[in-house]
């Protein structure tokens, strides 16, 4: 079964249900969810997180695709309707639309947008299943899946807080892109907004029965997404039982802590080797205040060529943000103008905080941060150990006319899954979900390697 049409232009929070108008009963054949705002201009590339659900049919596979920036995506294979595609039906939850279908004996698949902007995927069981493990084949492109385990004793001592829904979850990051860019060519400016590079978050699933009993489940991702429900819960549950993995739209880290000493993001994906004509114009951080108004500093540092690469010299005086509330949000500094030397590596650091300053991070699985010896952002960095987390902060760069444009990955148009190489026009070929799997086969080994070796702890 083919994707019904090209990607529809919809606003954030809007759902488009597509029906087959060639049949008398106009069966539902696809749902498209816009989870974040769409770019208002072709010259502005934002995350544009979107989910497309295809129930499949006799000639195709069921599944859903969640994609960001039109460049990175996760495709999850599901059981198609048990009898015919006509079994897929529209549903409404809290005023928002979705799809559901019978996917096997006493089992239903339900997918719908949440009010908080995430995508809810529910596996509904009417009776005890033969196994407590539910496994779904996946294909991923240009994504790193970073496992969020239990906090270490050191993290707890530092004051870190990780919600139960984040413990055992996965943060999904763009494989290579970070920061925001304004590329100036004469009177024309193109903006690319990657921020932290976080595409979405797959939260720890939970299961609940008809009487409201709830239990946390285990989630594992490699070449399949596998959910394991505690066996004793399924044996004693009052059916129906619902298992509900949630795909969150958050682009910030899921763990809160206090800065302590100054911190710098130093892994290769979060650092930057400057090209010619590049200038930092601002810094952005996700933070909150624990009491009153607090201040937090942000700065760029040159990096050495060691293993790991470490910060060396501060580029300019730190820019500051004032944190004014207890609810975490994105804070951006006033405009700065800090010219970068072509060929030099740079990282972003935060500091000058205190015990009432809250910052946020994700576990990354490999060496990703450097601690300074003091809370201040010094002229010369003094490394006092490294860690495997990335903080939710980034820089905004301007690339001037005649400068080298940052390298780009190929773009993927989510719904029809058209591959577009740099400089080419999109192909309007409509492909089947099976074609989508085939198109991703070349990158799955890389993704599998990253899942198993790069991001998990």
Overall pLDDT confidence: 83
Structural class: mainly beta
Task: Kindly state the percentage of residues in helix.
Answer: under 10%
How many structural domains? 2
Number of helices: 3
Q: How far is the first residue's CA from the last residue's CA?
A: 39 Å
Specify the biggest β-sheet. 11 strands, antiparallel
Percent of residues in beta strands: 35-45%
Query: Strand tally, please?
Result: 39
Gyration radius over CA: 23 Å
Shape, principal axes of CA atoms: globular
Q: Low-confidence runs (pLDDT<50, min 5 residues)?
A: 1-11, 408-457
Short description:
With 457 residues, this protein is mainly beta.
Question: In terms of topology, how is this protein built?
Answer:
Elements: E1 15-19, E2 28-34, E3 44-45, E4 50-54, E5 62-68, E6 72-78, E7 89-93, E8 96-104, E9 107-113, E10 119-125, E11 133-141, E12 143-148, H1 153-157, E13 169-174, E14 180-185, E15 188-193, E16 198-202, E17 206-208, E18 214-216, E19 218-221, E20 224-228, H2 231-236, E21 241-243, E22 246-248, E23 255-257, E24 263-265, E25 272-273, E26 278-289, E27 294-303, E28 311-314, E29 319-323, E30 329-332, E31 338-339, E32 345-351, E33 357-363, E34 369-372, E35 383-387, E36 389-391, E37 393-399, E38 411-413, E39 418-420, H3 433-455
């Amino acid at each position: 079964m083919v994707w019904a049409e090209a990607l529809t232009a919809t606003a954030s929070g809007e759902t488009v249900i597509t029906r087959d108008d060639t049949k008398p009963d106009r069966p539902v054949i696809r749902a498209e969810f816009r989870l974040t705002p769409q770019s208002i201009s072709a010259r502005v590339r934002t995350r544009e997180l979107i989910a497309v659900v295809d129930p499949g049919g006799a000639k195709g596979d069921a599944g859903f695709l969640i994609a960001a920036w039109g460049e990175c995506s996760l495709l999850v294979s599901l059981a198609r309707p048990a009898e015919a595609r006509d079994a897929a039906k529209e549903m409404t939850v809290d005023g928002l639309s979705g799809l559901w279908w019978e996917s096997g004996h006493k089992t239903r698949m339900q997918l719908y947008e949440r009010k908080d902007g995430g995508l809810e995927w529910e596996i509904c069981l009417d009776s005890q299943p033969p196994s407590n493990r539910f496994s779904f084949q996946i294909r991923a492109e240009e994504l790193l899946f970073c496992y969020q385990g239990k906090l270490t004793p050191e993290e707890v001592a530092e004051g870190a807080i990780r919600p139960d829904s984040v413990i055992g979850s996965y943060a999904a990051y763009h494989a290579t892109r970070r920061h925001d860019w304004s590329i100036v060519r004469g009177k024309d400016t193109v903006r690319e907004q990657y921020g932290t590079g976080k595409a979405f978050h797959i939260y720890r699933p939970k299961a609940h029965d008809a009487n409201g009993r709830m239990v946390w489940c285990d989630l594992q991702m490699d070449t399949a997404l596998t959910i394991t429900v505690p066996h004793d819960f399924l044996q004693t549950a009052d059916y129906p039982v619902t298992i509900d993995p949630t795909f969150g739209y958050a682009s910030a880290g899921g763990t809160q802590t206090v800065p302590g000493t100054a911190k710098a993001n130093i892994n290769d994906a979060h650092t930057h080797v400057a090209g010619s004509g590049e200038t930092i114009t601002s810094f952005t951080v996700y933070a909150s205040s624990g009491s009153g108004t607090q201040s937090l500093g942000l700065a760029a540092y040159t990096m050495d060529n060691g293993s790991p690469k470490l910060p060396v010299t501060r580029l300019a005086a730190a820019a500051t943000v004032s944190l004014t509330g207890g609810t975490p949000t994105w804070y951006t500094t006033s405009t700065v103008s800090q010219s970068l030397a072509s060929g030099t590596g740079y990282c972003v650091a935060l500091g000058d905080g205190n015990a009432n300053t809250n910052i946020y991070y994700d576990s990354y699985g490999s060496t990703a941060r450097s601690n300074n010896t003091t809370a201040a952002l010094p002229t010369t960095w003094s490394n006092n150990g490294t860690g495997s987390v990335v903080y939710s902060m980034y820089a905004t760069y301007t690339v001037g006319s005649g400068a080298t444009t940052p390298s780009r990955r190929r773009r993927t148009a989510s719904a029809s899954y058209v591959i577009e190489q740099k400089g080419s026009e999109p192909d309007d070929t409509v492909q089947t979900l099976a074609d989508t799997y085939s198109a991703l086969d070349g990158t799955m080994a890389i993704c599998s390697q990253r899942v198993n070796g790069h991001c998990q702890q």
